[in-house]
């Protein structure tokens, strides 16, 4: 048990150190959603207000609508960033070192997930603080209620990154991840526009958005920010998280997974 | 401790009547009753055709409703929702105001260019005063000596002496004046102009224009910024102004006349009323068919409540 906790501490510390030493990464992670909030949302300001959809009780402006989606964006990009650093670790050999530890492989991978999620959550709270100063303020209880939602969503998206990292052969292939995973996941979700808006142009697109696990994660965060539970969104996010985790474990299993094919 | 006991005794002695906001729905010919505590519609009461202006008698035992397309003012028992009788109102009554004597109703007759004065006890018309074309906004000074009618097409505020029931002044305002209120104990008269996009403030003693408030909502075309109904807080330091199809309510410093804030509400916000402690403001949003509740201290919209089609007027029943 002690060994397991030591491993957890070591992995989290390593990620934290890496994060602290790469200030540029922190700033970049913060600037991205802020640009969306202050530039993109300004262009779509909806000064006349967006129609009321739960959990909102009244009309809101677009800036308010996209904040939960941008929290999700931070988690999504960080999940993928973590996948990138896993590929880097594998190329550098430190991954092999980690996986040769006598501890169960699932535990080691889970520790990686916890570490990257902790950093993502920290970034989301920093973003929420800047958004608060910008004038987008949630109910006080919402800032507390969103913590478990961020952890669940962070682990789900981190698990997706983990599964993908077992697929990527080289660092250069990361651009493919951007094109084929991050962008479709982000744009085919409720992060930027509500489902009813999507349905106005295409019901198929609406259905794809509804099935996207990232949509579920964003909606879970959106409700939590207003201190309201969204059990279906939580259920689907947990299910998706378990699926991606199983896929990652399978991918990292030297006997069966993708690593074997890479030789 | 004594004070606590006294207040407890008072609380126990007072019947627990729920505070309500009554909203006229001009397309549904109904009134939606909102419970202030739960912020939910508890009753829907049928009325005459196209109900618009609404006000309660001083003791809240009667509610007066302008049923514009029925060409009458209806008198309703608020307990039962039954129409007690109709009052002769002249053609197309849109807005009215109850004189402080709790007896005389001053009614703007939009199609007839007159202001009709009705005695609610004898149920008779006691005067008809010729005013400008399409009269709309109505106000009576707190001392009851002056009544105001605003006419939408003539673009004037008409000053009526309530004793002689004759006009004693006419003052020009910006295009399509909609609503009038006496402010600061009757020293000032505020008149909103829908097309002009302004509120004109008059000194009541001299009937001279004192100031003008203009509005500008970021990201909204100026044509959509159309001031209509407005209300002032208890201390009369802050005014809330409904800005029509701009979907915003402006927050105005009533002492400096500066616009301090804009609050997003439902579509085409028209009129408004406070709850009894003036901590909540209820705005009627015609196009979206709802009522937005504003937290007055925080200046934030907290909820929009679905009511009937095209909500128009609102009145408090404590």
Automatic annotation (TrEMBL), chain A:
Cellular component aspect of the GO annotation: ATP-binding cassette (ABC) transporter complex
Q: Where are the transmembrane segments?
A: 26-45, 65-88, 109-135, 141-164, 176-196, 233-252
- Residues forming the ABC transmembrane type-2 domain are 24-255
Taxonomic superkingdom: Bacteria
- The UniProt record lists the keyword NADP: no
Q: What is its subcellular localisation?
A: Cell inner membrane; Membrane
Keywords of the record, alphabetical order, are: Cell membrane, Membrane, Transmembrane, Transmembrane helix, Transport
How does the record classify its membrane topology?
A: Multi-pass membrane protein
Keyword Transmembrane helix, does the record have it? yes
A single GO molecular function term of this UniProt record: ABC-type transporter activity
Enumerate the InterPro entries for this protein.
ABC2_TM, ABC2_TM_bact-type, ABC_2_transport, Alc_ABC_transptr_permease, Nod_factor_ABC_transporter
Annotated family = Belongs to the ABC-2 integral membrane protein family.
Q: What is this protein called?
A: Transport permease protein
Species of the source:
Marimonas arenosa
Species lineage, top-down?
Bacteria, Pseudomonadati, Pseudomonadota, Alphaproteobacteria, Rhodobacterales
TrEMBL record, chain B:
Q: Which InterPro entries match?
A: Host-pathogen_enzymatic-act, N2O_reductase_N, PQQ_b_propeller, WD40/YVTN_repeat-like_dom_sf, YNCE-like_beta-prop, YVTN_b-propeller_repeat
Q: Where is the signal peptide?
A: 1-18
Q: Which domain of life is it from?
A: Bacteria
YNCE-like beta-propeller domain residues are 5-106
Which residue windows are transmembrane per the record?
none
Q: Which UniProt keywords apply?
A: Signal
Entry annotated with the keyword Amino-acid biosynthesis: no
Instruction: Please tell me whether the keyword Signal is annotated for this protein.
Output: yes
Question: Pfam family example for this protein?
Answer: YNCE
Q: What is this protein called?
A: YVTN family beta-propeller repeat protein
This protein's species is: Marimonas arenosa
Query: Lineage, please?
Result: Bacteria, Pseudomonadati, Pseudomonadota, Alphaproteobacteria, Rhodobacterales
């Amino acid at each position: 048990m002690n060994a397991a906790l030591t491993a957890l501490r070591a992995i989290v510390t390593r990620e934290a150190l890496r994060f602290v030493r790469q200030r540029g990464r922190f700033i970049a992670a913060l600037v991205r959603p802020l640009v969306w909030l202050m530039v993109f949302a300004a262009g779509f300001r909806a000064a006349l207000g967006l129609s009321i959809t739960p959990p909102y009780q009244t009309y809101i402006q677009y800036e308010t609508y996209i904040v939960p989606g941008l929290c999700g964006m931070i988690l999504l990009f960080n999940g993928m960033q973590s996948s990138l650093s896993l590929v880097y670790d594998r190329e550098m050999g430190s991954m092999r070192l980690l996986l040769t530890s006598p501890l169960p492989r699932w535990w080691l991978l889970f520790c990686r997930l916890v570490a990257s999620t902790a950093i993502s959550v920290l970034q989301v709270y920093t973003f929420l603080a800047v958004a608060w100063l910008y004038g987008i303020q949630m109910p006080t209880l919402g800032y507390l209620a969103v913590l478990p939602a961020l952890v669940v969503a962070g682990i789900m998206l981190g698990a997706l990154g983990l599964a993908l990292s077992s697929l990527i052969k080289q660092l250069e292939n990361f651009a493919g991840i951007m094109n084929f995973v991050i962008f479709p996941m982000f744009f085919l979700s409720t992060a930027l526009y509500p489902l009813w808006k999507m349905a106005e142009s295409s019901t198929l697109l609406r259905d794809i958005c509804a099935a996207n696990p990232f949509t579920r994660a964003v909606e879970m965060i959106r409700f939590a920010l207003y201190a309201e539970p969204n059990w279906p969104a939580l259920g689907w996010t947990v299910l998706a998280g378990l699926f991606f985790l199983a896929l990652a474990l399978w991918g990292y299993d030297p006997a069966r997974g993708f690593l074997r094919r890479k030789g | 401790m004594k004070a606590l006991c006294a207040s407890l005794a008072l609380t126990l002695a007072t019947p627990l009547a729920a505070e309500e906001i009554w909203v006229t729905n001009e397309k549904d010919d109904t009134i939606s009753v909102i419970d202030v505590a739960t912020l939910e519609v508890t009753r829907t009461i049928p009325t005459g055709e196209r109900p618009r202006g609404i006000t309660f008698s001083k003791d809240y035992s009667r509610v007066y409703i302008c049923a514009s397309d029925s060409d009458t003012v209806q008198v309703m028992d608020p307990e039962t929702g039954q129409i007690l009788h109709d009052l002769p109102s002249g053609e197309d009554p849109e807005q009215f105001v109850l004189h402080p004597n709790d007896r005389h109703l001053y009614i703007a007759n939009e199609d007839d260019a007159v202001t009709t004065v009705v005695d609610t006890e004898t149920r008779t018309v006691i005067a008809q005063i010729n005013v400008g074309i399409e009269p709309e906004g109505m106000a009576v000074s707190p001392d009851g000596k002056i009544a105001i009618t605003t006419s939408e097409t003539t673009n004037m505020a008409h000053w009526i002496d309530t004793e002689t029931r004759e006009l004693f002044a006419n003052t020009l305002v910006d295009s399509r004046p909609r609503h009038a209120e006496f402010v600061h104990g009757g020293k000032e008269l505020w008149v909103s102009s829908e097309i002009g996009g302004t509120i004109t403030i008059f000194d009541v003693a001299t009937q001279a224009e004192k100031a003008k408030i203009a509005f500008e909502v970021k990201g909204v075309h100026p044509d959509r910024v159309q001031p209509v109904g407005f209300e002032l807080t208890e201390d009369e330091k802050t005014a809330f102004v409904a800005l029509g199809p701009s979907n915003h309510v402006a927050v105005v410093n009533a002492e400096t006349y500066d616009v301090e804030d804009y609050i997003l509400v439902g579509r085409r916000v028209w009129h408004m009323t406070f709850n009894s402690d003036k901590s909540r403001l209820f705005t009627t949003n015609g196009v979206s068919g709802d009522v937005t509740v504003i937290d007055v201290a925080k200046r934030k919209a907290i909820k929009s409540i679905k009511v009937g089609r095209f909500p128009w007027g609102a009145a408090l029943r404590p």
